[in-house]
Amino acid sequence: MHATLADVIADTTQNSIEAGAKNVSLDIVEDGTMISVTVKDDGKGMDEETLKRAFNPFYTEPGKHDKRRVGLGLPILKQICESTDGGVTLESQKGVGTTLKYSFSAKHIDLPPMGELANAILMLFNYPGEFELVFTHKTPAGEYSISRSDLSDAVGGLESAEGISLAREFLSSQEEALRE
User: Fold this and answer.
1) How many CB atoms lie within 10 A of CB 151?
2) What is the pLDDT of residue 2?
3) Taking residues 37-62, what's their average pLDDT?
4) Domain boundary assignment for the chain
5) pLDDT tens sequence across 85-113
6) Which pLDDT does position 54 carry in this prediction?
7) Are 76 and 112 in contact (CB under 8 A)?
8) Which CATH class is domain 5-115+130-147?
9) What SS3 state is found at 23?
10) Buried (b) or exposed (e) across 50-66, using 16+ Cβ within 10 A?
11) What is the pTM assigned to this prediction?
């Protein structure tokens, strides 16, 4: 089970990266009443049959997990969304990509805390592979957007401890500014 929304966001975005996407966008919009997340990719996409089964906890894409035959990510996401007066939609086309949109009521008593979003985003930026990830976060206090390549260039690469530390500092400062 995911302890925070940052965990949920990381999990759903990681799915796009693992689907072979070259371009992934992650947009979070908080308007004071709702928290809305959109993850869009140009990965391998899903055919109609797979799309129909995507929210079934007893289904996972063949070959995705070595030791298990269930996929709980999307079913858990759907449960969290629906139990917090939000919702979830999934659109996908084989060979084109996938768009996942989900939302939560920001004031719902059962809403998990946001958690360490900056660390979750940094983990996604550091995920292995050749892909571009553009992250945008908007709240009533402001917004910012950063791409994986721009952040890497700004901190001198995400391979070194110094680069990772600088990236974490930047992302944390941006998130903190959105909470003021």
Assistant:
1) 21
2) 58
3) 86
4) 5-115+130-147
5) 999 999 999 999 999 999 999 999 999 99
6) 86
7) no
8) alpha beta
9) strand
10) ebeebbeeebbeeeeee
11) 0.91
Residue listed under structure tokens 């791409």: 147
Q: Are 97 and 61 in contact (CB under 8 A)?
A: no
Alpha helical stretches, state H, 3-157: 5-18, 48-53, 73-83, 117-125, 148-155
Q: What element of type H or E holds 170?
A: helix 161-179
- Are 18 and 128 in contact by the 8 Å Cβ rule? The answer is no
Residue pair 152/44 in contact (Cβ under 8 Å)? The answer is: no
Residue 136 or 52, more confident? 136
Write out the E strands in 34-162: 34-41, 87-93, 97-105, 132-139, 142-147
166 vs 164: CA distance, rounded Å: 5
Q: Which two tokens stand for residue 28?
A: 């979070």
Is residue 102 a contact partner of residue 87, using CB atoms and an 8 Å limit?
A: yes
pLDDT value of residue 55: 85
- Rounded-to-integer distance, Cα 98 and Cα 106, Å: 25
